[in-house]
Amino acid sequence: VRKSGILCNLTSLPNESGKGCMGEHASRFMDILQSTGQSVWQLLSIHPPGKNNSPYASASGFAGDVNLLDCTKPVHAFTSGGLIEFRKNNPWVHDWAMFLIAKAEHEGAPWHEWDEKIRNRDPEELESLRDKCRREYWSHIGKQLSFEIQWNEFQSNAEKRGIELIGDFPLYVAHDSADVWANQHLFNLEGNMPLE
Predict the structure, then answer these.
(1) Pairing state of beta strands 40-42 and 57-58?
(2) Distant-in-sequence, close-in-space partners of 136: CB < 8 Å, separation ≥ 6
(3) More confidently predicted of 146 and 196
């Protein structure tokens, strides 16, 4: 069966943030695809962009780019139980939230330049940091839960219109990423120097 479609990244769609979105403008674009007989929409990576604003060297191979959240939709008031359940089902989100908190605490420096105990993931230091930044911690997790909800809605809208989504994923995990910081034993790291 022959199909036709288009490659258009979500960041190319208009939005108040200027960085694209999965909301109304995405739905309008689907309507255009449907009305013109297109049945395939190819997307680029939806992960947080890393160095040089590229999603292909993302700071996370799991997290969604929260810049794509539809800011016109009401923010979900998640219960603590809902956030805990989301964290339980998505273990990576704890490391992602801690990575963002630690990065902010170190003024945006890459993880290999952080204080030694945080850099090496000392459990007591991480617990202390999480307690200090508890609000930010749960906020980061809540944003990822919001992303998952909106992403599922986006996929459902495409399915209803008979539009097949073709996805993409980061080709590389960035050195300065939650994934490398949380799993240093899995990577061949030359001391504390970033890999180029």
Answers:
(1) unpaired
(2) 97, 100, 101, 104
(3) 146
Give the amino acid at 30. M
Over residues 32-62, the pLDDT tens digits come to 999 999 999 999 989 998 878 887 889 999 9
The dihedral over CA atoms of 60, 66, 68, 72, expressed in degrees to the nearest 10, equals 170
H or E element that contains 18: none
106 and 113 Cβ atoms separated by less than 8 Å: yes
Give pTM, 2 decimals. 0.90
Q: What is the DSSP letter of 70?
A: -
Alpha-carbon distance of 174 to 61, in angstroms, equals: 9
How many residues are there in the chain?
Answer: 196
CA distance 5 to 146: 28
Q: How many Å apart are CA 77 and CA 42, to the nearest integer?
A: 32
Q: In the structure encoding, which two tokens stand for residue 135, read together? A: 């609000």
Phi, psi at 124, each rounded to 5°: -65, -40
Cα 110 to chain centroid, rounded: 18
Separation of alpha carbons 165 and 159, rounded Å: 9
User: 172 by DSSP, 3-state: which?
Assistant: strand
Q: Where is 166: in which H helix or E strand?
A: strand 164-166
Contacts 24+ apart (CB under 8 A), 47-56: 47/169, 47/170, 50/174, 50/176, 50/177, 51/174, 51/176, 55/170, 56/170, 56/171, 56/172
